[in-house]
Amino acid sequence: MAKKTIAVVGATGAQGGGLVRAILEDPAREFAARALTRNPASDKGTALAAQGAEVVAADVDDEESLRRAFAGAHGSFCVTFFWDHFSPEKEQAQARAMAQAAKDAGLKHAIWSTLEDTRLLVPLSDSRMPTLMGKYKVPHFDAKGESDRFFADLGVPTTFLLTSFYWDNLVHFGMGPKKGPDGKLAFTLPMGDKKLPGIAAEDIGRCAYGIFKRGPELIGKRVGIAGEHLTGAQMAAELTRALGQPVAYNAVPPEVFRGFGFPGAEDLGNMFQYKADFETDFCGARDLGFSRSLNPKLQTFAQWLGANKDKIPLG
Ligand SMILES: NC(=O)c1ccc[n+]([C@@H]2O[C@H](COP(=O)([O-])OP(=O)(O)OC[C@H]3O[C@@H](n4cnc5c(N)ncnc54)[C@H](OP(=O)(O)O)[C@@H]3O)[C@@H](O)[C@H]2O)c1
Question: Do residues 134 and 88 make contact, with C-beta atoms less than 8 angstroms apart?
Fold first, then answer.
């Protein structure tokens, strides 16, 4: 039987890369990986080709290139790149283009990597957190959530994938423990005693692969995934064990986090506050057992730390 091709946006990145590897590693060889990149000749592009992926050029800012890249495929994995440009409007235009290209290609199954539109629970009139960019509470969440309708309105057979905080942010996004003036390490999170659903970025792609393997069962569904739901104190305790030195939990209030001044600090401060204020809904939408049923290799935070602790910069 011919393999079913999955066109993977962001194939050289975290989410899409995990999916390409999951497709290529499956001994059942049920699917083929078509890796989309803006530059197939790059080191990452040629490495994916060497691993067995079909590597094609596409840019999410160019709908025609997406149409070409999706043509003849069974499915697509659609993801946007907010932190490359910080523009919710651009993110929505990219989601709309992917939905349209999926529709035009007649795909049987798209996965849209989305997040909650926080304004459904925190309307702009709610003063508990500031409104940002004029019409958002958590711009990088709201833009994704608002974009769900592009897939739904066009009738694209879509699974809406609610992802979680990557533990890899401790390596790549400045979220690792930092040394205080006393020389001791502290892990900062503005979530008090509330739980943060987290996941190894690699596991997002593996879960997405599990969704494709289920066939039509999860089309039209919202599927949330996480590896564990942990409080900041629990994460600090795991960091202490893994690093072999004490890591304190520094539970700053969200308004302090919003004031840290790095690009995106207000967006992330609001995001963590939302996750804390709606802990039950947010964790409830990301069932651990279901995530594991999609991806039996799903890692815990301790397992992820075991493999990645040496990469965490301890500033
Ligand atoms: N960090 C977190 O905790 C977290 C949690 C949940 C969701 N998210 C969301 O995850 C999204 C990012 O996904 P990711 O982490 O997988 O991204 P990533 O690792 O930063 O990957 C980005 C890849 O996307 C490609 N890319 C960038 N702009 C492109 C364009 N215009 N057209 C086509 N490809 C483009 C690049 O590939 P080429 O250079 O090869 O083209 C790059 O390798 C963000 O929207 C973020 O909000 C993040």
Answer: no
**C-alpha 60 – ligand 1 centre gap (Å):** 11
Can you name the residues that pair with 159 across neighbouring β-strands? 111
pLDDT digits (tens, 9 = 90+) for 240-276: 999 999 999 999 999 999 999 999 999 999 999 999 9
Binding pocket residue ranges, ligand 1, CB within 6 Å: 10, 12-16, 37-39, 42, 44, 59-61, 79-84, 140, 163, 165-166, 169, 173
Whole-number Å distance between alpha carbons of 36 and 242: 36
pTM (global) more than 0.90? yes
Which amino acid, 308? N
| Measured distance CA(286)–CA(291) in Å, rounded | 8
pLDDT digit string (tens) for 24-78?
Answer: 999 999 999 999 999 999 999 999 999 999 999 999 999 999 999 999 999 999 9
